[in-house]
Write a structure and sequence with these properties.
Blueprint: E1 4-5, H1 6-13, E2 16-18, E3 24-25, E4 27-28, E5 38-41, E6 58-61, H2 63-66, E7 73-75, H3 79-89, E8 105-106, E9 111-112, E10 117-118, E11 123-124, E12 129-130, E13 135-136, E14 141-142, E15 147-148, E16 153-154, E17 159-160, E18 164-166, E19 171-172, E20 177-180, E21 185-188, E22 191-194, E23 201-203, E24 208-209, E25 214-216, E26 223-225, E27 230-231, E28 236-237, E29 242-243, E30 248-249, E31 254-255, E32 260-261, E33 266-267, E34 272-273, E35 278-279, E36 284-285, E37 290-291, E38 300-301, H4 310-321, H5 323-340
Parallel strand pairs: 4-5, 5-6, 6-7, 8-11, 9-12, 10-13, 11-14, 12-15, 13-16, 14-17, 15-18, 16-19, 17-20, 18-23, 19-24, 20-25, 23-26, 24-27, 25-28, 26-29, 27-30, 28-31, 29-32, 30-33, 31-34, 32-35, 33-36, 34-37, 36-38
Antiparallel strand pairs: 1-3, 2-7, 21-22
Length: 341
């Protein structure tokens, strides 16, 4: 079990210690579920009522909330970021693999750095390069000429096709497929003619890719995921997309081919972005939004309707279909009034 004192956490976070600095912390938990030895946090006013009754040994708080709290606390500007840092320090997640399993198939031309771990039944192809400290989970396949940067972790049953490059300190969760063919075809008199997808995938440092997410390879050039991007589960990123630094894409979203998503963008869950569009840096796409035209100005963009009673939704759907007719009637009325004037 990992442990750290409140004083040590304060130094790590640059936070002020309120209460017993020698208190030993062994884990993290919510305000409601925390027990002795665990530290919690308050980042949302919705949960302020739980602060009074929490059994947490200490709580991460802003100065405003700490002023009304009599227990042990770490006082800092952003308790949620502080919680993330503490959770990393006390993380008990096991490694994806330990050592080189006897059943792993590693091509003689592959190059493995120091401390590489490869799990059972994993397959490492020709001319693959694995940096120091890479972890390859059981059943994972890494295709020929791919490169995985130092300290990157591939969980079980990840598939990297050929000519895929991952940077340092990445995490790829189970079932993710990187480098599969993009959806590229020409149509000849009703018959689909496949276009070989000869590009690769280039992924930067500190990228996290969720379970069962698919990132297609480029048709000619590369599909690119830049540094610091986080991608949730079951996301589809099509061929030749470019995802800018530190952007976030939530679950079940789909990005069609040749999209350029800017830096620091947020794409809410179940969103869809049509192909060949540019999305400006800092754009925030709300969950369930369909983006069909370029986004040139930073801001929040939404298109989905909120949930409502089915009868009301059906009536509104009929009215939506009547909008053009209503528009034409209003337009005609405007012409009439102008004529009378």
């Amino acid at each position: 079990m990992k442990s750290v004192t409140l004083k040590e956490l304060g130094l790590l976070l640059g936070a002020d210690v309120q209460g017993d600095a020698s208190l030993v912390i062994t884990g993290v938990a919510t305000l409601e579920a925390a027990v002795d030895g665990q530290i919690s946090f308050l980042a949302n006013s919705k949960y302020r009522s739980q602060l009074e009754h929490t059994r947490a040994a200490a709580v991460l708080l802003t100065a405003k909330d700490a002023a009304d709290y009599g227990g042990n606390a770490l006082v800092l500007a952003d308790p949620y970021v502080g919680f993330a840092r503490v959770a990393q320090l006390l993380d008990t997640t096991p490694n994806a693999a330990e050592g080189i399993h006897a059943s792993a198939q590693i091509h003689p031309s592959a190059m493995l750095g120091e401390g590489v771990a490869v799990g059972a039944n994993a397959v490492i192809g020709a001319r693959v390069i694995l940096g120091d400290g890479v972890q390859v989970g059981p059943g994972t396949v890494i295709g020929q000429d791919s490169i995985v940067g130092s300290n990157t972790r591939l969980w079980a049953n990840v598939t990297l096709y050929h000519d895929v490059q991952l940077g340092r300190d990445c995490i790829v969760h189970s079932g993710a497929v990187i480098g599969s063919d993009g959806f590229g075809y020409a149509n000849e008199r009703g018959q689909w003619v496949k276009i070989p997808q000869t590009g690769g995938v280039r992924i930067g440092d500190r990228v996290e890719i969720g379970a069962s997410t698919t990132i297609d390879r480029g048709a000619l050039g590369h599909t690119e995921i830049h540094h610091g991007v986080i991608i949730d589960n079951q996301v589809q990123i099509a061929h030749n997309d470019i995802i800018g630094e530190n952007s976030a894409i939530a679950g079940n979203s789909t990005i069609a081919g040749s999209v350029r998503l800017g830096k620091y963008c947020i794409v809410g869950g179940n969103s869809a972005i049509a192909g060949h569009l540019n999305i400006v840096d800092g754009a925030h796409i709300s969950g369930g939004t369909n983006v069909t035209s370029e986004v040139r100005v930073p801001g929040v963009y939404s298109s989905a309707t909120v949930a409502m009673e089915n009868k009301l939704w059906r009536r509104n759907t009929v009215r939506f279909r009547q909008l053009d007719e209503l528009f034409q009637r209003v337009k005609q009325l405007e012409k009439t009034f102008k004529t009378e004037d």
